[in-house]
Sequence to fold (130 residues):
Amino acid sequence: QMQLAESGGGSVQAGDSLRLSCTASGQTILRNSMGWFRQPPGKEREFVAAISWIGGVTFYGDPVKGRFTISRDNDKNTVYLQMNSLKPDDTAVYYCAAVRDYGPVPENDRTGASGAYDYWGQGTQVTVSS
Fold:
């Protein structure tokens, strides 16, 4: 059973940067594609970024393309989300999720509701003020 723990959230000003971390325990992430989602206040959860388990192919939601970068360090069992040029619209709870073993990134899953993500973290709050 995999447990995921996000960290690195906080309150920042528009234009600042943050790096979120998602550390897994219980099993290695070596076989898992990983994703980041976010849920803004009063809105539906939305896809942010994902990285495949093989090849490290990355995918991004349109609102974050060119500003956010997802990466992984399998040796540290950790996935990162580097967020630059933050905007107030980026304010949300950010969640890390893991796809089932050997599963590809579900490219059409824009809310995390496809069932492809087997494990979820508790989330970390990011607040961006103008």
Summary: The two ends are 40 Å apart (CA to CA). The longest strand covers residues 18-25.
